[in-house]
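Marked as duplicate of an earlier ticket. Keeping the data here for the record.
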Amino acid sequence: MGFLDFFPEDEKAVNPVNRDKRLTPRWKISVPAKIKLEGNNGYSPCEIKDLNLKGFSLLIEKKILKKRIGARLCFSEKYDFKIEVIILWSKVVGSKRLYGMKFNKIFDSDRALILQMMNENFPPHLWKGV
């Protein structure tokens, strides 16, 4: 008999299938951006679906083959970041691919710039945490 056997079924903890397990919630922003992946000559249009100081999800037409990759992520001239990411997951969404990315390398100054960008452009999202 385990600890949870003392509680009726309706009081046991439920673990939803698609529960977000992140310790730091992502800000849902869905904004256009462009990304230049290591080894590519130019930028590719993309959409950043959500973002926090640990990572983001990226919707793009290209298939990314490497699990760890350097890139430049550009929202605007002012908000251009040099990053290295690890791809944690991907799925097909229509004719595009959605990638869950974790920052592997990012400058502290760029993290501060992300907060500045969120505060200037998405203030309600920044303070709600979602």
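See parent ticket for discussion. Residues 24-124 form a domain with the Thrombin, subunit H fold (CATH 2.40.10.220).
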